[in-house]
Amino acid sequence: MNQPLLGAALVLVGMGLGATLLRDQVPSAFAQTVPPAAPLAAPGRAGTAGTSAVQAEAQARLQNERNTVEVVRRAGPGLVFITTQQRVLLPTPFPDLFAAQVQQGLGSGFFVNAQGDILTNYHVVAGPGGEGTADRILVRVLGQEESVPARVIGVAPQYDLALIRPEGLRPALIRPIPLGDSGSGALAAGQKAIAMGAPFGLDFSVSEGIVSSARRQVPIGFSQSPIGEGITQNAVQTDAAINPGNSGGPLLDSSGRVIGVNTQIYSPSGAVTGGAQSAGVGFAIPVNTARSLLPRLQRAQGGVVTAPRVGLVPGLIVEGRGQTAAAGLSALIGEVKRDLGLPPAGLLVGRVVPDSPAARAGLRGGGRAQAIAGGWLVLGGDVIVGADGEPVDTLEDLQAALLDKEPGDRVTLRALRGGQLLDVPVTLDAASFQ
Q: What pLDDT is stored for residue 60 in this prediction?
């Protein structure tokens, strides 16, 4: 893991972000009166240079405001407000007798094509405990008072993504938001980020900030894999305010293109009060991840899309506060890597799953476990340093190279073995996607 484990005071809020239960109206405390903006200060005796600087600053501020207004104007019609209804049985004081109750969840989504497909988070439409989907899904678009039902086209729980399609919505109301680029060459820390959604049920809300990190590894999604793949992902971190109800909404750049799907937050207050609130640390699933999964979601026919696996178990594990996580070699200090003869970065192969694509390709796992401060590693196996020409340091990097693959496709892994670099072609089979 490239980032140190956060302290216990930080609570990762995923399921609660879009599935927050709101039974009452938003308290009036949320309705705040905004005082009028103060006029610009006069330049005084700063002279012409001072006046020009003030005017330039004011002009830049006005340009940024105009850009935000224009982005919201164009993207707003593509935003979707999602509500779910789930019938649950609650215990009563009487044996073998349960009371039925309908619970409501709230979230966001956005149109991705002219057919009306709506991309959102899996946990927005998931059933109780993150399993299955809600009994009923309703969507509403900007300017409409009535909601229409929607059906599930496909879900990808490991990536916390879902694709739904409204039924009976007029085609004129379908306004797709263009997808941007979240690649390392296109997305950088410091650039503008605009989050849209329905925080606390306040539908069609907007917040603005910056991209705090273009590649932040955090746990996202719900994995049923016996070897633990598909949990930690590279995410876009932003300080644009994201709160419960924003889940599934778009994170936009200054051109109005989607760069991420808002998914979760770190909430220090949630650790104390149990209620998640934004602390300026929010995460979005990169749009390139969502774009790569779209074809598979559209073909899923209401089913589940899983993360492809080649059958590798990471050999570097870090521990913290009772939890373990796989990490890349870049997480180790240079002195340890030099002593162990390991490269600066790469995915250490601890074990190869029998009868998997990796096993058939001849990749090798380690056979010698060694404890280190804060974790342990398995030595003697291959170190994966690349996949299809892209560098690999973590399991997430490898998964990124597999996103758009299909059964029968090949991925070429570059492995370091005994000091030599090898190109190992690995062919994915149908079992890789189950």
A: 74
